Amino acid sequence: MIFVKSILIGFFTLYASISVAQTTPTVAAASDLKFALEEIAANYKADKGQDVKLVFGSSGVLWQQVKNGAPFSLLMSADEAYIDDLSKNGLTVDGGSLYAIGRIVLLQKKGGPIKLGIDKESLANAIQAAKKIAIANPDHAPYGRAAKEYLTNMGVWDLAQPKLVYGENISQATMFALTGSADFAISALSLASSPQIQTQSTSVSIPDKLHKPLKQKMALIKNGASSAKDFYLYLQEPKSQQVMVRYGFVTP
Description:
Layout lengths: L1 H20 L4 E5 L3 H15 L4 E5 L1 H9 L6 E4 L2 H9 L8 E6 L1 E6 L10 H10 L3 E4 L5 H12 L3 H4 L3 E4 L2 H9 L5 E5 H4 L2 H4 L2 E5 L8 E7 L7 H7 L3 H9 L6
Parallel strand pairs: 1-2, 1-3, 6-7, 6-8
Antiparallel strand pairs: 3-10, 4-10, 5-8, 5-9
């Protein structure tokens, strides 16, 4: 009886160890990745039989949450500076890796009356015709900073500023335009390229020379689920990179 009891204890101890090792990792990702990453995660499930939990938000907010001890296993930032800071402070496994360069677009709800164009005159006319213009909050969202740089470099920041409404992240700013809460938004090409948003909107790509490159970096977080490493490597495989390119990202 004691022998059987010992076997059972050993079995459950082993089972518990396996369960911990296979804990579903939580991936914290910039909001511009929503549709691309959901597709990659579905591919990962089909190819590897493993799940990942996805949490989306602005890179600055997710960065702060990691610093405050949030139980994330992998952070995919839209700004490499956030990863570099976490690495410098010893919160990541290593220096991480560049996984994509993002792009921005002008986007409005399909059938919207404003004519969107990338030249200064067209942009100024669109701003004057609009009541509200949505961008992500530049204080903590890299796509918001890129939008501000674009408007500044085009010489229309002062014209646009009184009409700006800020989304907590790029997904929320995009939704402001799609729901009519804003006349148009400066959104992410990765969101505008998704079938879900393409059917609801029209967009115009903004030349990348008009803002600093959106270098997007990811890193494994120290003490995260060990199973996150497999997904981290999967993200760098050609199949995943092809998904990223289809959503408008430039890959390393």
